[in-house]
Design goal:
This protein is mainly alpha-helical and 240 residues long. The protein is built from eight helices and no strands. Helix 2 packs across helix 4, helix 5 crosses helix 7 and helix 7 runs antiparallel to helix 8. The longest helix has 32 residues. It binds protoporphyrin IX containing FE.
Length: 240
């Protein structure tokens, strides 16, 4: 088999694609968190960050298309590996349906993956496309929709006011709840996914396996705390 054929057709190659794309998405999640935590700094900071992201349209679209390709490969490898595993062993082994069985774990990763995909679609409509139908702003809100929240002075004048948009967005209980649930599932997915990746890399048992598993759980917990604190702080009016 040629190297590319091996990568895209063998199950080991698909596992490499799933692990590598998963690791890149993990890095994106950390980078995005660092950017968003600027909500706790003076409001000009997160607006300057939003401005920077939108100012270079060419680069923005390269990153977007790159992310889309990475997500596509991650989902494709997960779906085909899952189908391959099912056809290889149509009969579920005794115990595999238990709380820690292989089929339970892959079904679980699949279900959390689906909710994350639904969340990302909602999230893009909410903050990137600013679709009025999904912001759930009350009728008496100062803005009719997020497109009206624009910086009125300073270097970002005329650009979207990311700070006010996040504050308006997370004052809605249903929106905040959905974000918290989705972020929780994302972090469970990240933690299980990295443990599965270490297994595929051959780190099966022993002290290193235990350390890596514990490290994945701690990192996923920190990512959850970092993301969850943003909607919660706004909802509790700690950020205005
Ligand atoms: C509290 C949690 C989060 C907040 C406050 C937040 C905030 C934002 C904001 C403000 C934007 C729009 C930037 C702009 O266009 O001006 C954005 C875009 C985006 N977010 Fe998030 N985000 C959160 C969680 C997540 C998570 C968990 C993921 C991934 C699973 C994610 C993935 C994305 C993506 C893919 C974009 C589109 C970037 C682009 O414009 O191409 N976000 N986010």
């Amino acid at each position: 088999m040629k190297p590319l054929q091996l990568l895209f057709q063998s199950s080991i190659g698909k596992k490499v694609i799933m692990g590598a794309t998963g690791a890149l998405l993990f890095l994106f999640v950390i980078g995005h968190l660092v950017g968003n935590l600027q909500i706790f700094l003076p409001k000009e900071r997160i607006n300057a960050y939003g401005h920077l992201l939108h100012a270079n349209v060419g680069l923005l679209w390269c990153v977007r298309l790159g992310l889309l390709a990475i997500v596509g490969l991650h989902v494709w490898s997960a779906v085909t590996l899952n189908a391959q595993n099912k056809s290889a062993r149509p009969e579920v082994y005794a115990g595999a349906q238990g709380p820690y069985g292989a089929s339970w774990a892959s079904r679980y990763m699949f279900m959390t993956g689906l909710v994350i995909a639904a969340f990302v679609v909602y999230h893009l409509l909410h903050f990137t496309l600013q679709a009025p139908a999904v912001n759930l702003l009350p009728a008496n809100h100062e803005a009719k929709d997020f497109t009206q929240l624009v910086v009125t002075s300073g270097p970002q004048q005329g650009y979207r006011d990311v700070h006010r948009m996040l504050v308006a967005g997370f004052q809605q209980p249903l929106v905040t709840l959905f974000y918290l649930v989705a972020i929780g599932l994302l972090c469970i997915h990240l933690s299980h996914g990295s443990q599965a990746m270490f297994q595929s890399l051959g780190v099966q048992e022993g002290v290193w396996r235990r350390r890596l598993d514990a490290g994945s759980k701690v990192l996923a917990g920190l990512i959850f705390a970092g993301y969850a604190i943003i909607p919660l702080a706004v909802f509790l009016r700690l950020v205005q």
